[in-house]
Amino acid sequence: AVVSTQSTGEAVMTITNFPRLGCPDFCWPAAQPSPEGNVSKSLFFPDECINPHPRFGNLVRNIRERRGKKVEINVPIFKDTNTPSPFNEFPDLDAAKVDHVYMDAMGFGMGCCCIQMTFQACNIAEARMLYDQLAVMSPIVMALSAAAPIYRGYLCDVDCRWNVISAAVDDRTDEEESGSGAFPHHSSRYSCINSYLNSEKFSDVDLLYDKEIYSTLIAADLPNLDHLLAKHIAHVFARDPISAFNNRIELDDEEDTDHFESLQSTNWQNMRFKPPPPNSDIGWRVEFRTIEAQLTDFENAAFVSFCILLSRALASFNCNFYIPLSMVQENMRRAQKRNAVLDQKFFFRKNIQCCRCDCEPDIEEMSINDIINGNGEFPGISKVLRAYIKHMPELEFVTATRICSYISLIQKRASGELLTTATWIRKFVRNHPQYKQDSVVSDEMTYDLMMECREITEGKTCPDLIGNLRVDSDFNNRQYRRDSYIDESETNRSPNFSPTN
Questions:
Q1: Highest-confidence segment of 157-166, 174-183, 272-281, 391-400
Q2: Are strands 346-349 and 363-366 parallel, antiparallel or unpaired?
């Protein structure tokens, strides 16, 4: 539908962020920033680029007014051979850090794109389980999908968008951020979760919550509302609302959840727990929020399918990924670093078949290759997924073959055989004939990069990103037997994963 509305010279691409967002004349029609305006007051981002729906302009203004100043986004610059050292664009601006690329508007974060998936659970118990277990996987999948190494025309020393968005919507006052006041917020509204829903033992980070709301929920003595879930809901209420509409203020909270959703929808974490709407047959849901947008439909489908399979395998095999939440938060920090998929190690649990929530974890710092593809002591997540497929004899051949090609893409990303989108973009820029090894990504370089991305999106072969994986027509070649997509050597040498339901 979007493609049908294109004019000559326009193209739709699934990229995580536009490399020169915030640079002079980055948009069309051209618009100029308004540092003295009444919305973003940005040095770089024109108010004309804000979505015209009232919600977005209000969010920009309200976040700025609540914190008492503009948002402060600082991304470490990639230090190439000729990058100035120190790199200091704005020596007279306290908000701009040395050796960082400075940005000052919500649009730099909310101008990014990603894949967010909502899973329908069969009941509240399964939803809580998925929320906890997928939270552990969220930094791993983010590193595998990394696709954003350039900000405001500079090559940066990160590969992901997460901290950019986190800072872009950070409405904390100086008092709240410093830890003083009634509600000392230790993180932005856009951050990693601060508590599990099924495990108090592994929820080892401070959880800020509204104690009055918590007491009210506990006193209600409702089924399925234990103290862990009550604290989670009270945590949502510890934030101020930052968006409201005049005609949606006086509501019957017995029939309408808009007041709750105004808070829930502006607490942007790596996972979101979504209760059923009132008077609806929609059930309990969980949202997974860390995947970065990829260039091709095949790659995007691979990450979606990987996470769907993982959610079903978790429920079927009763896997246990629990590690202390402080380690998950550290993994989130590591996942955003340059080439994290190959260069970083991540805390992960080796004894994932210990099904009790409180059993002692055997935790090791592993490479993503170990986590996905396994090693001598750990089977690897890919093998769990292939074992799950093996227990689905009703799965059609073509579907199974396609799904296993998706898993193979993730495996090859983990091993380094295929590049992440971020690494591919960085390689393209550094090999461009106009690049001067100074971290600057010019208009001309960006144009060439976008044209190459467009060609890949529209079907050009890119061995670095997809390799020789079957993408379209090959899935209909029925000469392949079931053995071609179920590698018995992988599943047989792994622990015996069998469905429990």
A1: 157-166
A2: antiparallel
pLDDT score recorded for residue 398? 87
Strand ranges inside 283-420, DSSP E: 285-292, 346-349, 363-366
Q: Which residue has the tokens 């101008």?
A: 111
Supply the pLDDT for residue 500.
Answer: 53
Alpha-carbon gap, residue 15 to 457, rounded angstroms:
10
Q: CA 124, CA 274: separation in Å to the nearest integer?
A: 10
Total number of residues shown for the chain: 501
pLDDT digits over 469-500, tens only? 865 544 444 433 444 444 444 444 344 555 55
Angle at 458 between CA 456 and CA 459, to 5 degrees: 65
Report d(CA 295, CA 13) in Å as an integer: 7
Residue 429, C-beta contacts closer than 8 angstroms, at least 6 positions apart: 150, 155, 435, 441, 445, 449
End-to-end Cα distance, the chain: 40
Nearest CA to 286 among 352, 198, 351? 198
What was the pLDDT predicted at 373? 98
For residues 134 and 288, is the Cβ–Cβ distance under 8 A? yes
H-helix or E-strand spanning residue 119: strand 114-120
Is pLDDT at 332 greater than 90 in this prediction? yes
3-class secondary-structure state, position 90: coil
Question: How far does Cα 217 stand from its chain's mean position?
Answer: 30
pTM for the whole structure? 0.93
Report whether 282 contacts 276 (CB < 8 A).
Answer: yes
> Per the structure block, which two tokens stand in for 359?
């059993």
- Which positions ≥6 away from 247 have C-beta within 8 Å? none
Q: What CA–CA distance (Å, rounded) separates 415 from 25?
A: 40
Which pLDDT does position 359 carry in this prediction?
80
